[in-house]
Amino acid sequence: MTPSVFADPRTIRLPGGPLCLYEAGPVAGDRPPVLLLHGAMLDTAPLIWRHLMPELARERRVVAIDMPRHGGSRPWQGTLDQPAMAAAVDGVLDHLEIGRATLAGLSMGGGVAIGYALSRPERVAALVAISPGGLDRTRPPHFLTWLGLRSDRLLRYATRWVASPSYLRRTMERQFAAGADTPDFEEVMALIEAEARLRLAHGERALDDWQITAYGPWRMRLNHLPHVHRLGVPSLWVHGVLDKAVRERSVRQAAASAPRATFVSIDRAGHLAPLERPDEVNAAVLSFLDDAGV
């Protein structure tokens, strides 16, 4: 069953389109609110944050959003690259009258959060980056990947292919370290399949603009790694030992470069550690926030 923190979403209107958000926890308090940013493709807030958000909300105000062109945040106009995603975060914080927040993100959401903390340091109290994107100079096979990303037709065809329930189940059983024994596996699959149907119904590409625009022909256009030494807030960097999408070396390098940074490795977890090892991820995040005083 989807946790009750996701039972009453509301939608706000931003210049690019509707933005669906979920709120929980005490509004008043000394701690800055936590804003949760999920990853790309078939991620949504109720999927990725089903375990972490209820725990955070015991003592903190927490806001989770369906990122533009995910979940209830459709339709959306324009190219959703890093600047557009940062503008959407601005819109959420402004609408909710939040001056500073702790940002926590997974994969694409982690990359968006890193970029936001670098470009708007006055609005960020702390950073949690879980297997974040945007930390590589190249990603082999780089040129072939960039070439494939140039084909709009291929990316839209891939959406139809990915929407097959049998394909999704086989893929997720391989991606999760515990396969079908992953916590709440059937509920997780129902959420993933629902998002795949929405992506197909809206005629969207299989990959997000943020992923596509990050690539140049010879190197990544989006690479936060050379800049994370400028982060002015405490940061937690989390990586699943079995993650095949984000290299451990890149996350460790970021943690080593960033001031006041902590690195945590999650055993028996891949790219979706908050779903695969929720107790370990929850404990790491809560301990970090308590130690950082946020």
The description of the largest β-sheet is: 8 strands, mixed
Q: What's the CATH H-level homologous superfamily of the domain at 4-137 and 225-292? A: Alpha/Beta hydrolase fold, catalytic domain
How many helices? 12
Distance between the termini: 30 Å
Specify the helix fraction band: 25-40%
User: How many strand units?
Assistant: 8
- Summed over residues and divided by their number, the pLDDT gives a mean of 96
> What is the H-and-E element order?
EEEHHEHEHEHHHHHEHEHH
* Order of adjacent strands in the largest pleated sheet: 1-2-4-3-5-6-7-8
Q: What's the CATH class label of the domain at 4-137 and 225-292?
A: Alpha Beta
User: What name does CATH use for the topology of the domain at 4-137 and 225-292?
Assistant: Rossmann fold
